[in-house]
């Protein structure tokens, strides 16, 4: 952590942003750890299981754009309050009325997508308080709310076994309500928040090549992270015959690794530059995904490789958001929404393609190999633009932040 970080911004807001993001992410992926039990009760096939766990990811991608616009117009704090209330009420309805069909699981997935859109609230809320030289660290800490997926993987299968999976929807509202209370008390919008834009102006960033590059880069790092977080319980259960609770523990270990290092990825990017650190992470993720596609003979071997993949992807998430606010500081709300949307689309692709791969070919190799190819493509894209970035917008940050 760079010297002076604790005095540079507003620590209560950073803490509340992290907690809001963390527990919202726990809710966002809750279907994945319970997918084995839900599919057994509802008689779902591999493709349906894949679509069920991918639907919250896809819905979250769309709602992130909505939240990105609302953050610019209403402020991050107000947007976060509205979103959290919607999620809590939706989960209470699912618990009260029950979920009895595949179609109803998809409706629950839409509600959970609003929780996934918390990303487009927490990061602009934290970013607005910190100068360029501390962006990687601040957004790494706020973005470490990815760790909420660990709680889902650790506790959801056991709670579902003890109380029934439909009751877990009601139990999840308890920590969400706590996070909402902390958010109300501690979160504040930055006084340096840019004024609201006219609606057509939000799409102006899409005329910028760099916006599309960041969207693609994050679709690989975050898409890989959340796609695996949503799918690994199914994978370990199906591929190695692990019980749902044990498969959840294996998934939690992988997700914990990826979540823990997101702040470290931001800090490393602050010190050595986002381009350099992100390049190494893409290469490592691609190698790990190719290895796991080979169908390792023991579950502990697969666990080790998945942990390496999640470490690379988690650090990559932090590195991407060390770069984004340097290039698009005045458009941080809408860029967080757009970049976060494509991250969700990447997760939807991975989670759903693994289910389709299993149903068509009887294995998961194709899904992993395609995503490894995307990681290599991102590495090539980053290599092609790094010199231009450093010579143009990176030069403006010389002495403050490293590109």
TrEMBL record:
Residues 12-390 form the Major facilitator superfamily (MFS) profile domain. It comes from the Bacteria. Pfam families: MFS_1 (PF07690). The chain crosses the membrane at residues 12-31, 51-69, 81-99, 105-126, 138-162, 168-187, 212-236, 242-261, 273-294, 300-320, 332-351, 363-382. It is a multi-pass membrane protein. Keywords: Membrane, Nitrate assimilation, Transmembrane, Transmembrane helix. The keyword Nuclease does not apply. The keyword Transmembrane applies. It is found in: Membrane. CDD domains: MFS_NRT2_like. Belongs to the major facilitator superfamily. Nitrate/nitrite porter (TC 2.A.1.8) family. This is NarK/NasA family nitrate transporter.
